[in-house]
Design goal:
136 residues, alpha/beta, three-stranded parallel β-sheet, 17% helix
Length: 136
């Protein structure tokens, strides 16, 4: 983000299967004030897959009125799947709005229960919940 008024939106969606290992490292650097960025990483882990998201926002000195957000969310679909989220903020300027959100979770039982009460099989209900999670 090198010029005033620059804006960026970065969206990544990942699915790990088998023994696959997915590692995503992203860095958003604000070098000018009056910039905006939104970064969203979502993943679903099946089987014995491993997913790691490492996101970092850097706001350099003298970058007022900067707004940046980092979201890292992973859904563990299988008991053997593993995940790690590592959000990092490095803020060297005043008058900025910078935040992050990170979570590793399982499929909420109440969501599949609701869909199953509407006639869907457990497998179809879980598939819909996962698709909804990934599309955010």
């Amino acid at each position: 983000m090198v010029g005033p008024g620059a804006e960026a939106e970065v969206v990544g969606k990942f699915v790990g299967r088998g023994s696959e290992e997915i590692g995503v490292k992203i860095e958003v650097v604000h070098k000018s004030g009056h910039t905006r960025a939104r970064t969203v990483l979502r993943g679903a882990g099946y089987d014995k897959s491993k997913i790691k998201f490492a996101g970092r926002i850097i706001i350099d000195k003298n970058c007022p009125d900067t707004n940046s957000f980092l979201e890292e969310r992973i859904l563990l679909v299988s008991d053997g799947a593993r995940a790690e989220t590592v959000p990092d903020l490095e803020i060297k300027s005043d008058d900025v709005h910078c935040s992050h959100a990170a979570s590793v979770s399982r499929i909420p039982e109440n969501q599949t229960f609701y869909l199953m009460s509407r006639g869907l099989s457990k497998k179809k209900a879980e598939k819909l919940v996962i698709e909804g999670f990934l599309t955010g």
